[in-house]
């Protein structure tokens, strides 16, 4: 599979000390990010996520190692026309309207004047800010500024979208709309690399992820491959409570769904599996059984805890 980003032994030290070697903000990071994927880059505060993004965007220079974006070095000016970027805590001129700001962004990206008006209208519609097109950015809330930040990041229809904490400042409704935008970008062929602390949102939209801690990569890979199987999940369709009631005492987790159905989670034991297989065979039209996996939050904290023990 072709990669949109390739990183090899990327290292970054901040400052210098004559009497001791400083701790690297990023320590020999090696990472491949597949083309066309949504990649979530996770880690505690200070893990090195923003440092990685700054290195990829050529905002700072590495102390060692190298990276490539779309097979080009980060300092390649032309490649930046194919990248959309939203930094953490963006600050824009408060005296510009949304239209004026996006027009400047479009000019800087070399978008022809004949296309700018249509492109600006397009991205404002995507981020649900059309009615604020002529309003000054200085009067916008944090969430509204974030939406304009997303708009400028996609105005060039990028091949790669790099976002640093894009969900900050958005309410739950706004976060859902943002996730929809990410999936729309993926469907149009854009690769997405983003950092976030909101693990539940990452889990719903990411194909791949990596976890960074104290500058070191703890793991990276396809999300489904990283999360461990924890047992078996049985879904029972609505109107069949009698099947669920026979199994409630053996289930480690039970959820009555709004539609009247059931989700039951069972430990991955041989005797339990045999019982469930029998039920599934007898009621195959109304019962579905799939492996149950740990959620991303449990996986994340497990990896961080394991790393802390070994340090």
Model description:
Helix 2 (98-108) packs across helix 3. The strands form three sheets. This protein has a six-stranded mixed beta sheet with strand order 5-6-7-3-8-9, with helices on both faces. A four-stranded antiparallel beta sheet has the order 11-12-10-13. It has helices at residues 49-56, 98-108, 113-126, 142-154, 172-187, 199-205, 223-226, 241-247, 270-282, 296-310, and strands at residues 3-12, 26-34, 38-42, 64-69, 83-86, 160-164, 191-195, 208-213, 216-222, 229-236, 253-256, 262-267, 287-293. Helices cover 35% and strands 26% of the residues. A hairpin with a 5-residue loop joins strand 11 (253-256) and strand 12 (262-267). It has two domains: 3-225, P-loop containing nucleotide triphosphate hydrolases (Rossmann fold, 3-Layer(aba) Sandwich); 229-293, Alpha-Beta Plaits (2-Layer Sandwich), CATH 3.30.70.240. The protein has ten helices and 13 strands. It is of the alpha/beta class and 311 residues long.
Total domain count: 2
What is the 3D shape?
globular
CATH superfamily of the largest domain: P-loop containing nucleotide triphosphate hydrolases
Reading off the top of the CATH hierarchy, the class of the largest domain is best stated as Alpha Beta
Largest sheet: spatial strand order: 5-6-7-3-8-9
Supply the number of helical segments: 10
How much is the radius of gyration in Å?
23 Å
Main β sheet profile: 6 strands, mixed
What is the CATH architecture term of the largest domain? 3-Layer(aba) Sandwich
Tell how many strands the DSSP assignment holds. Answer: 13
Strand content: 25-35%
* Spatial gap, N to C terminus: 34 Å
In the predicted model, the low-confidence regions spanning at least 5 consecutive residues are: none
Helical/strand content category = alpha/beta
Q: What is CATH's topology name of the largest domain?
A: Rossmann fold
H/E element order? EEEHEEHHHEHEHEEHEHEEHEH
Query: Overall pLDDT, averaged?
Result: 89
């Amino acid at each position: 599979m072709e990669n949109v980003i390739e990183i090899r032994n990327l290292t970054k030290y901040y400052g210098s000390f004559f009497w001791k070697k400083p701790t690297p903000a990023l320590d020999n990071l090696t990472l491949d990010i597949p083309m066309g994927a949504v990649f979530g880059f996770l880690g505690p505060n200070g893990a090195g996520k923003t440092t990685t993004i700054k290195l990829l965007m050529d905002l700072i220079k590495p102390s060692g190692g190298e990276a490539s974006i779309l097979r080009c070095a980060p300092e390649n000016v032309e490649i930046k026309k194919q990248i959309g970027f939203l930094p953490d805590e963006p600050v824009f001129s408060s005296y510009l309207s949304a239209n004026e700001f996006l027009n400047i962004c479009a000019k800087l990206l070399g978008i022809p004047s004949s296309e700018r008006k249509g492109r600006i209208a397009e991205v404002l519609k995507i981020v649900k800010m059309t009615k604020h097109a002529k309003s000054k950015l200085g009067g916008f809330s944090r969430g509204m500024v974030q939406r304009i930040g997303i708009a400028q990041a996609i105005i060039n229809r990028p091949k790669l979208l790099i976002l640093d904490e894009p969900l900050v400042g958005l309410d739950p409704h706004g976060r859902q709309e943002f996730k929809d935008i990410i999936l729309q970008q993926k469907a149009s062929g854009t690769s997405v690399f983003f950092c976030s602390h909101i693990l539940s949102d990452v889990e719903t939209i990411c194909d791949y992820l990596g976890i960074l801690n104290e500058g070191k990569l703890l793991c990276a890979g396809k999300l489904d491959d990283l999360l461990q199987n924890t047992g078996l999940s049985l879904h029972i369709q609505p109107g069949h409570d009698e099947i669920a009631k026979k199994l409630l005492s053996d289930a480690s987790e039970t959820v009555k769904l709004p539609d009247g159905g059931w989700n039951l989670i069972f430990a991955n034991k041989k005797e339990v599996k045999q019982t469930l297989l029998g039920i599934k065979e007898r009621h195959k039209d109304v019962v579905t059984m799939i492996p149950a996996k740990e959620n991303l939050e449990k996986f994340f904290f497990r990896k961080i805890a394991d790393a802390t023990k070994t340090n």
